[in-house]
Amino acid sequence: MITAEALTKRYGTTTAVDGLSFTAGPGAVTGFLGPNGAGKSTTMLLVLGLERPTAGTVTVDGRRYADLPSPLRTVGAMLDARSVHPGRTAFRHLLGLARTHGIPRSRVEEVIGLTGLEAVAGQRVRTFSLGMGQRLGIAGALLGDPGTLVLDEPVNGLDPDGVLWVRDLVRGLAAEGRTVFLSSHLMHELALCADRVVVLGRGRLLADASVRDLLERSAGAGLVRVRTTEPDVLARSLVRLGAEVAPQPDGVLHVRGIGAEEVGAAAGRDGVTVLELAAETGSLEAAYLELTTGSVQYRAGGAR
């Protein structure tokens, strides 16, 4: 479990993390979101004892990282998959990590198999593609069989099969009762694998909620889209039922307040032909953009 309480980190006059409090609990995948410059990387460094907080605390299983007797067996991390000596082979890199914690050679071989690196374990890391480097980073995080995983952009550079593998891996680790804390800019992927999300903006907490709650609060949630040959007739009937109706071009109505079945039934009673009928669902991307509208530090200009 990761627990942050009023966590703050300042660099001179710049506040990178500002009074951040959240918990990433066991048995769940917690997604970590925020625009560039929001403080995500700094927070992860604080979790792993690579930076010291200016104020507040962050602990893993109730202890600061520096106080863990065997860190690799408690929390595994992948922050930068490229931070490996390019002249070492994948096997030698993992074996070196293992020896610092008395982890047997058999576990090194096990995580190499788990991450699909058997065929390249004897190759030097400088020859690795970005995706292979990501797999090696994940192997290092898993090496100590820890109860907590901290993963920064774990699917970066992976092909579709690799992305699916990571999704299944983190869901499986959470199902075993482990804490999985991961950052990603791939909203669709997080929506599929995360149970909760923590959203940061300019170093401050914007949201700490379940994915389902965020989806229900997003702009598209609860919207029914219907296209008909007689939108005016159907709109009058739907308003009488208490719905909010917003006419759109081409005979389309956007309806809120009642479900798709009720819209279809109303059309049937009125003898109105329905060409399209769909209940829209919210998206994590829409919810994220709504939350971070005022917190984007680096915003691109319009195309010319």
TrEMBL record:
InterPro entries tied to this protein: AAA+_ATPase, ABC_transporter-like_ATP-bd, P-loop_NTPase
Gene3D superfamilies listed in its UniProt record: P-loop containing nucleotide triphosphate hydrolases
Keywords: ATP-binding, Nucleotide-binding, Transport
Family recorded in the similarity comment: Belongs to the ABC transporter superfamily.
Lineage of the species this protein comes from: Bacteria, Bacillati, Actinomycetota, Actinomycetes, Kineosporiales
Protein name: ABC-2 type transport system ATP-binding protein
Keyword Ribonucleoprotein: no
Residue intervals of the ABC transporter domain: 2-227
Domain of life according to the entry: Bacteria
Record carries keyword Zinc-finger: no
Record Pfam families: ABC_tran (PF00005)
SUPFAM superfamilies, per the entry: P-loop containing nucleoside triphosphate hydrolases (SSF52540)
Molecular function per GO: ATP binding; ATP hydrolysis activity
